[in-house]
Each structure stands twice: as C-alpha cells, then as structure tokens.
C-alpha cells in the first residue's frame, strides 16, 4: 500500500479502503489495544503474519497512531491517589493506539487543513467543532466554561488523580486517541478545548442517535465523566452533574 497524501483524499475515499480484513484488525485494536502488534494479535487470536501487514496499512491510513509510551493506571481503593506506571515502547516493536472511526474522521479533516502551525490548527479545529456544537445546545460554550471550572478551577496545568490533563481533565489515553498533539500541549487552552470537544462530540452524537434529542446539562456532564452510565448514573455522579447544571444556569 502506497503512503497516503491526505490532502488529496476525502474521508469517504479512505473509508472505501476499509475492506473486511482491515475492519477486523481495526476492531481487534479497539478491543485489545494499546500494545504491540504481537501482543494485540495474540489477544485477538489472529495470525501475526496476517495481523501485522493489515496493522501497517491501518497506520498508513491514520487509524492507528504510534506512541512513545502507554500510561497504566493502578487505582488505590484506600482513597489515596492512583499510581500511574508508564510503559515505554520496546526497542524493536512500537506501541500503537487505535482511533475510533469518529476520531479518524477528525484526524483526516485536520490533515486536510493548510499547514499553518500547530496552535493555529488547533484554533481552527476548535472553531469548526464549536460551530458543530451549536446544534447540541445554545449554551454549549457556557457548558465548557462550567466544565473547566468544576474539573480544574480553570487550571490549564492541572493533573488529576488518574493522570488527567488540561483544564478539562482529559484522560491521557483519550487524549492520545483524539489527537497527534503531545500531552504537553494540554496546557494550551485552545488546543485542550479542541481535543475535549472532539471527544465529547462523538459521545453527544451517539447520545442523540440513541435518544433522538440533545443532552441536557446534567447529561452533558455525565457524558463527560460517566459516558457508560449516562442513563443510570451513580448518586455521587448525579450530584456532581446537578452542581454543574446549577453553574451553567447561573451564567
């Protein structure tokens, strides 16, 4: 497979290349990654001689991204902060993380933008996502301001107990799946907003498909912090979400 010039390819062109074998390998990466091709192939019970070339093709297409390390979070249930163990890439095999289809679409769109610098690119992405988010709620930006205040007190350099970064407290694995920007860029407000909106946009899109409506302020907060439990939140999560709603309504 020849290297892809993303400036000449539409997202639909790239999707057309996802044949059955590549889709199967991509699903394996989503289910069993991040990791090396050898490890993920073994977990997925797929022959390495078939798995590795398909993974290379997915990497060339942008569905896999190479990372220097993976953060393994070990919770401490005694109430103390979790331990974060960074697993470096091996000397012979790289560590890869899969992008979801929605994340891949955002990645391809960013690749097709003119090269005007990393910060300018992030600002453009934020503008595009902001316009899209207007369909979710007229108070979308109010929600992001409130989320920033609750998650970190508007602290761009905040680090959470599970390794979350930025004023929006984005999990490191989510960050790496959503963007090629380094984790150090999380301290830039515009970049962090673009990444956060990309992650949340996918969740809101799925919510709207399932519920045929936009999420309320409470559901917006739950989608950010407990996406799997948005319809059945924990009492503590619901209490926090209502605090978020109150903050939004004050703005």
User: Which whole number gives the mean pLDDT?
Assistant: 79
Order of helices and strands: HHHHEEEEHHHHHHH
Strand arrangement across the biggest beta sheet? 1-4
CATH topology grouping of the largest domain: Lysozyme
- CATH architecture field of the largest domain: Orthogonal Bundle
Spans where pLDDT lies below 50 across 5 or more residues: 70-91, 114-119, 134-141
How large is the count of helical segments? 11
**End-to-end span in angstroms?**
52 Å
Strand content: 5-15%
Number of strands: 4
Summarize the structure.
By secondary structure, this protein is mainly alpha-helical.
Structural summary, described in words:
The protein folds into 2 domains: 6-100, Arc Repressor Mutant, subunit A (Orthogonal Bundle), CATH 1.10.10.10; 113-250, Lysozyme (Orthogonal Bundle), CATH 1.10.530.10. The chain contains 11 helices and 4 strands. It has helices at residues 11-15, 20-32, 37-44, 48-61, 101-111, 118-133, 140-152, 172-178, 189-211, 217-225, 235-250, and strands at residues 64-67, 69-74, 83-88, 95-98. It has a two-stranded antiparallel sheet with strand order 1-4. Strand 2 and strand 3 (83-88) form a beta hairpin. Helix 3 (37-44) crosses helix 4, helix 6 (118-133) packs parallel to helix 9 and helix 10 crosses helix 11 (235-250). The longest helix has 23 residues, at 189-211.
Helix-strand blueprint:
Layout: H1 11-15, H2 20-32, H3 37-44, H4 48-61, E1 64-67, E2 69-74, E3 83-88, E4 95-98, H5 101-111, H6 118-133, H7 140-152, H8 172-178, H9 189-211, H10 217-225, H11 235-250
Antiparallel strand pairs: 1-4, 2-3
